[in-house]
Amino acid sequence: MAAMRSALRDLPKVELHLHLETSLRLRRMAERLHPDERAYDGEPHLIASPGAFTGYDRLRRLRYAGRAGRIGDDAYTLENAFRITADLLAEVAADNVRYVEIRVGGRRGFTTLGVRPMLEAMAQAAEAVEARLGVRSNFLVTIVRERGPQEAERIVAEAVACRDCRVVGIDLAGDEANYPPAMFARALDLAREAGLGITEHAPHLT
After folding, report:
1. What is the distance in angstroms between the CA of the first residue and the CA of the last residue of the chain?
2. How far apart (Å, rounded) are the C-alpha atoms in residues 26 and 69?
């Protein structure tokens, strides 16, 4: 078994679905920087109440509320955006991933830091890691259905303006039952016309 794991690790790989913000990287970083402080115990940051959902959709919102949703706003800095991007890319490089696409911006990073500043920090980290470890990377900007079509169009417009920051696509995520894809047709058309790829989180079976 160990030999198989080693062989799999050594194989060159492509990773097309990694999320930056909903990982635990920011929380772990905050805990390392302030080991003597209690974990963030305020109300979690939520886009939609988990109680409004059932099955897996409810589970994943509860999971977010208990993890990334409890990261304090002070952890959202450009320096930390650079560090967690570099950390993520270094981790995948250790598994011999040669190319990775990172989804970003669906939760709090863009609202706290701004679209271009955060993407610029991430792109700087990606450039540094690529030069050091050889792993190539690009970014998909997430638009969240619960925030509505007008914000989606605004985020897409900003993403299009940030193609120089390794933006290659748009990811539509969130509550599809109450916010069907048709509501976001204009936003997705804007992305398509600008040459960006489009991915969509499919509904989960429960």
Report:
1. 33
2. 11
Predicted TM-score (pTM) of the model is 0.80
Give the mean model confidence (pLDDT) for residues 42-64: 55
Q: Residue written as tokens 């409810």?
A: 58
Task: Give the type of residue at 119.
Answer: L
Q: Sort strands 136-144 and 97-104 into parallel, antiparallel or unpaired.
A: parallel
Whole-angstrom distance, CA of residue 183 vs CA of residue 164: 28
The residue among 139, 33, 127 whose CA lies nearest residue 80 is 33
Helix%, strand%, coil% for the chain, nearest 5: 55, 15, 30
Task: Give the integer Cα–Cα distance in Å for 194 and 186.
Answer: 12
The gap from C-alpha 80 to its chain's centroid, in whole angstroms, comes to: 14
